[in-house]
Amino acid sequence: MMFRQLSILGCTALILSGCKDKAKPMEMPEFTVEVATPVRGNVTEYRQWVGRLDGMVDAEILPQVTGYVKERLFENGQSVKQGDILYRLDDIQYREALQRAENNAIEAEANLVKAKKDLDFYEPLVKNGSVSRQSYQDALQAYRAAEASLAAAKSSVSLAKTNVDYCVLTAPVDGIAGFAQAEVGDYVAPNSQPMVLVSSFDPIRIYFDISEQDWLNQNGTKGPLAPGAQVRLILANGTDYPGEATVTGVNNTVSASTGSLKLEARASNPDALLRPGMYVNVRAKTKEIKDALLVPAESIVNIQGQNMVIAVNDKGQPHVVPIVKGLPEGDKVSVTGNIGTDTVIVVTGTQQALMTMEGRGKLKTKPQTPAS
Fold this sequence. Notes:
This protein is an alpha+beta fold.
């Protein structure tokens, strides 16, 4: 009987001991977060627009006379200089026409010489009455007709020479010849398609459209996109084009259909890397703020639509501070609000810091690890 009572007392003691262990409060977790202080720095705003490239000159080489292509003297895509011969046409018929015109001019000049001698012969005779005045007038008219005939013959010679010259087609500018559209043996005429396109694109033009709002925001011709301003070009593969482009013109009207304003810039293109028809991003500095307050971008949290940072006071207690986001600068963002360069803010571990504010943990801080 005594043993049974001791067993019951032992079990009761174990039960009470277990209840006491369950009533022991759980220890809150400790969260380690990285902190930093805001810094001062200059912030620059950049904007980008899509630009299309165009050559300074796109010269279509068109035949001015009819004929067969005798020679093609360039390779597709070849760099050419102004005056380089691109094509020769068969010029036999035009040289023959030139020879005939020159012969006619020689004959007309001889007729003029004869008419002048006749006129000089009749002039003193008509004065002393040895010949009739009508004979003198006939000689004068013959001389004037011979003059007109010689002038017409010389004009025919000039036209014939021009036609011969037209049989040689040259590059009108320094540039690059496109792919040939006429080959040896082809028959070409003035109303046919261009034989080749020669493009000059050093410098090269860049056309880009900006919105009316952008134009007003950057203060028009007094802003960073005024003629003479420098802009950067970002190529389709994401790389920066070396050197800068210069804004050279702004259209005088805003497009009624798009509400945009067309701008032109020019860039040096000595290696012909940029080609007409390419697209680039035109990047321009549109605003600069001096001595702005900067915080790491990852330190900003959004709570119910309001941007906040989590500040930590001297006692290690976190609290939220409303801020207004400004311009980005690298991995930082400019902000305004009730913080300064001596404010300790949470950079990484913002969610854990918020849990600490709710009483669901303890906060431990350490300086932010610098980026490698």
